[in-house]
Specification:
The strands form 4 sheets. Strands 3-2-1-4-5-6-11 form a 7-stranded parallel beta sheet, with helices on both faces. A two-stranded parallel ribbon has the order 7-10. It contains 11 helices and 13 strands. With about 350 residues, it is an alpha/beta fold. The chain has a domain of about 240 residues: 3-Layer(aba) Sandwich (Rossmann fold), CATH 3.40.50.720. Strand 1, helix 1 and strand 2 form a beta-alpha-beta unit. The structure holds nicotinamide-adenine-dinucleotide and thymidine-5'-diphospho-beta-D-xylose. The site of nicotinamide-adenine-dinucleotide (NAD) has 31 residues, from helix 1, strand 2, helix 4 and strand 5.
Length: about 350
């Protein structure tokens, strides 16, 4: 593999993956990114120009996608609308980018017989009960809850169908919740860190008992690179690092390591349809491909992430104001939606 196309490479995980590839391989990377509210070319700052090329464009643009795909050995597909809260307020871009965008890429890789790796989420499996001893595996039935996760599920199924029907050389991975540098401040961990840095109280949805399975973004990158090199065609791999914690505990740790009381937060209206618990069994990836996470010390990863946001206000300062304005508007709509649901029952 000499030259790869990374879709969504100016987003959180995509940019970290491009950084990982640049540091650990000789591969030349072409990034295609629409630079939506979530994309930031500054996230690729400092990378060697002769190794990393940014093309601003839409993955639903079939002509552009065809041109880009025809010039590479593999495509790693991160581009997506990725935030559950936004999908509850305006699902249209989720259907467009996540479903039509993936379809457009699949048609191009089919035409040019190019290797494809599809990035997806554990949310396609729905949620687990808090007291369920089980975890998601590659054979757990799909049962997505939100417009976001249902469009990701749809995109996964398209990839599987293109493998089966057309022999497209593709692999898929479904990863748990990522954290690390360059994550948009709309997401849980950076939202809380940046609120505290701004002297504002963090906001916990509902009782904060919902569980997420946290993985450092560098471990996601190494897993994807392993699958790209050694994955079996048509296979789905689950990526996770045994990092289950409830939101209240994560927020307590953030507050504590920033010098505040663990309970110095506000409880706010819950997310409608809020998934209870995600948990990944990544044993296929470990046993079959020999992958191991290297960043499992959550306290250390969190401390480094807090340090990054503390030192890089230039990257998130403007985004923060816009994001909190959007959240204020969404909170009113959520409260109405929950109240309406209550009266129906
Ligand atoms: P992100 O929102 O930070 O980045 C998405 C990127 O895609 C942005 O740069 C955006 O500009 C770009 N994009 C959006 N629409 C586009 C379009 N039509 N054409 C071209 N580019 C477009 O998302 P992220 O958190 O980095 O997630 C990346 C991928 O990983 C997604 O597919 C997501 O479903 C998946 N994933 C995320 C997590 C997580 O915890 N964040 C976990 C598992 C899987
Ligand atoms: O302010 C908040 N308060 C809060 O309690 C925010 C933004 C979130 N939460 C809760 C909701 C979730 O239980 O924190 C948890 C994590 O929330 P998000 O960061 O929005 O992530 P989640 O909804 O779990 O989805 C993430 O992981 C799977 C990514 O955003 C998805 O792209 C990925 O597929």
């Amino acid at each position: 593999m000499k030259r790869i196309l990374v879709t969504g490479g100016a987003g959180f995980i995509g940019a970290n993956f491009v950084r990982y590839i640049t540091a650990h391989t000789e591969v030349h990377v072409v990034v295609v990114d629409l630079l939506t509210y979530a994309g930031n070319p500054e996230s690729l700052k400092g990378l060697p120009e002769e190794r990393v090329e940014l093309r601003i464009g839409d993955i639903t643009d079939a002509k552009l996608v065809d041109e880009l795909v025809s010039s590479v050995d593999a495509v790693v597909h991160f581009a997506a609308e990725s935030h559950n809260d936004n999908s509850l307020h305006d699902p249209a871009p989720f259907v467009n980018t996540n479903v039509i965008g993936t379809f457009t890429l699949l048609e191009a890789v089919r035409r040019h017989d190019v290797r494809f790796h599809h990035i997806s989420t554990d949310e396609v499996y729905g949620d687990l009960e808090l007291d369920d001893p089980g975890r998601f595996t590659e054979t757990t039935p799909y049962n997505p809850s939100s417009p976001y996760s249902s469009t990701k599920a749809a995109s996964d199924l398209l990839v599987r169908a293109w493998v089966r029907s057309f022999g497209v050389r593709a692999t898929l991975s479904n990863c748990s919740n990522n954290y690390g540098p360059y994550q948009h401040v709309e997401k849980f961990i950076p939202r809380q860190i940046t609120s505290i840095l701004n002297g504002e109280r963090p906001k916990l949805y509902g009782a904060g008992t919902n569980v997420r399975d946290w993985i450092h973004v560098d471990d996601h990158s190494s897993a994807v690179w392993t699958i790209l090199q050694h994955g079996a065609m048509g296979r789905t791999y689950l990526i996770g690092a045994d990092g289950e914690q409830n939101n209240r505990d994560v927020l307590g740790s953030i507050l504590e390591s920033m010098g505040h009381e663990r309970d110095a937060f506000d409880m706010v209206t819950d997310r409608p349809g809020h998934d209870l618990r995600y948990a990944i069994d990544a044993s296929s990836l470990r046993n079959e491909l020999g992958w191991r996470p290297q960043r499992q010390d959550f306290s250390e990863g969190l401390a480094q992430t807090i340090k990054w946001y503390r030192e890089n206000r230039w990257w998130w300062g403007l985004l923060k104001t816009q994001t909190e304005e959007r959240y204020s508007a969404q909170e009113t709509t959520n409260a109405r939606a929950l109240a309406a649901r209550g009266t129906e029952q």
